[in-house]
User: Fold these one by one.
Assistant:
Number 1:
Amino acid sequence: MTQRRLSPAGLPYRPCVGIVLLNGDGLVWVGKRLQGASDEDVPSSPWQLPQGGIDKGESATDAVMRELWEEVGTRKAEIIAEAGEWFYYDLPPDILARKKRNTWGGQKQRYFALKFLGDESDIDLEVHHPEFVDWRWAELEDLPDLAIPFKRAVYEQVVAEFTPVVARIREA
């Protein structure tokens, strides 16, 4: 029997997907967090990749396309790569203390690279309940410096995993 991995807080990790949306130049979409959009807001580092939970009975590939629509407001993308493993991060104790109900101690994320097939007018942050107030294209290797501190190690893993994908896009 496989034992479930628990966070340092003794809580399980929430299964999630993360999205590395790449344009034709190999740049990655990052969104500027709306203050108060989640318990994870840290005003000094508001940029992040789209991400979200995998619903019960939902596949990770279905979740990534749903989250793309909900957070970025587009369906104009195709999956071109999937990370070979789950990436984990722990919620800091101060965030856990602010949560009304501590269900999760952090997140385990399966990241996907998607190629953006639309143009910038196909991105609509107002499609659902907005989580981002702004967005821009960034270099993949800049992600760890844009991230809130407790997500930096995951973003370093994302950079290592998807650097070859960006290279293929730039060579095409």
Number 2:
Amino acid sequence: MQDPDLIGIFVMPFERAGIPYLVSGSVATAIFGEPRNTLGVDLAVFPAPGQLPLVPSLFPESDFYLPPIEVMEIECRRPVRGHFNIIHHASGFKADIYPSKNHPHLPWALEHLKRVATPAGEISLAPPEYVILHKLEFFREGGQDKHLRDIAGVINQQDLDLGFLTQAVSRLHLTEEWQAALHLAMG
């Protein structure tokens, strides 16, 4: 199980405030597959109108770096690739916040989200198939093998919807990356 500090520091404030989110990235793959150390958490966050101004009270300036609200608003309005960071001063832990609602498979992910108990409390986790899709995209963009290792761990630990994954991989033009992940998982 992932270090509960990342979840307690970054995820639980969104959970308690009722701001919709999904935990993804390496924290999700550590829960679904093979644990690995990480100093950050990826969160897809979807504040409803009026919720974004709550974020500075959830992450006070005395304890966190948070961009100005105007920057967060701009990032939330981006049609794709919206992004900002929250950094915890005392630990150096970081949350990568992705507010874009335009991923073609986000509606499926929200419909299939997983509620998971952690030492810090119950959280909303992106389904493993959605996490795999994002990891494949990150691998395609950066070529870092850690993404393939994370995916292989999930493949070996989860009962995946391979029909959905095959269709989504094709739609996102990730077939070569998917084959590399499958090869590593079977290897």
Number 3:
Amino acid sequence: MTNAASHLADLRKSYERAELSEAASHADPLKQFDQWLTEAIAAQVPEPNAMTLATVASNLRPSTRVVLIKGYDESGIVWFTNYESRKGQELAGNPYAALQFHWVELERVVRIEGVVEKVSDIESDAYFNSRPLDSRIGAWASPQSQVIAGRSVLVTNAAKYGAKFMLQPPRPPHWGGFRLQPDKWEFWQGRKSRLHDRLRYTQESDSRWIRERLAP
């Protein structure tokens, strides 16, 4: 057993920064998310746009990875990736997924569940063309999630596609955006004595949101 492992049970933190009440929260979960994300950015927490994406394969085995939110509105939460990656293939077979934001410094977590679809080619093209040149070349150079012999494969591919496309690499056909359309949100605010605040929003068939408090 390592020294770190032997001390895990002793790690403690008292959550006392804020509270989350029904009266002070928005009836619309998107507005609540917008408020919390805005506050996370203003607080300059590390990578406030980072979110964990959970998908489930056809064999029911789940997997997670961190991706970056690139947009959000009433239609959903958007990120971009390689469609041939593990997450892309799993979403092709099972479009249900979950997202999680963890803003440690603010003692807050947001969990989002829903169905995922690809964004339009127009949206994917627009975002791809806004990326730095090396990132656009990288989208061609990396066969994401595939086994490669070494880093030299990536370097060689980057050089090849850089020479081929120069300053105008087009969007690869295997690269683009996904949008998760939420039907469930949960907002978690750490509180003292582990009596945390948890508010869950569930979408009804008529698109109304039902807000409920969950026990921590």
Number 4:
Amino acid sequence: MTRKEQKEERRKNILMNALRLFVERGYYDTRISDIAEAAQMSTGLMFHYFESKEELLTELVRMGAEGTKAAGREMGDIPPDVYLTEFLRRMFSFAKEQPWVFNMFVLMGQVRRAGMPEEARKAAEAVDTVERTAKLIEQGQKSGVFHKGDALIMSRCFWASVQGIMEEMAMDKEMKAPEPEWIVAMLKAGSGDED
């Protein structure tokens, strides 16, 4: 392993341990020395990678924000309901392979709350997954796949469901992911929809 690869591996180790501790203990109850100990390094060495706990948090939020961009990628001719179903299927599968993803959902939810460091909170609030998904819902409404209604509220409810599922799966490692079709079904048009 090259020196650059070792440095990147250490950096990743710090981030993953910080993520776990922030979720388990809370940001303010996690000391920088706790993160260093979990990463099996001295606090001084850790400061070579991140200058502060706030910088660590902000970097984690940036990682989380980058991960959400997949929800708004160009879908081509794929119907919105099929796209969202497949997106959830892949996300749940990836999260089972990489359990830190569950913690990332929890952290992103926590960081949006008042009282968190401002830079990290603003970065978390800038994530526009809800708005991008609302546009997909509008497309589905035009084609009759999704029921009528306020697409933004529908998107918020969709993502609140996903957030809750991810938080439950973060706490219960044995929990199986629900069928993505169940979640997308709350958006789908039914016989009771009005014109």
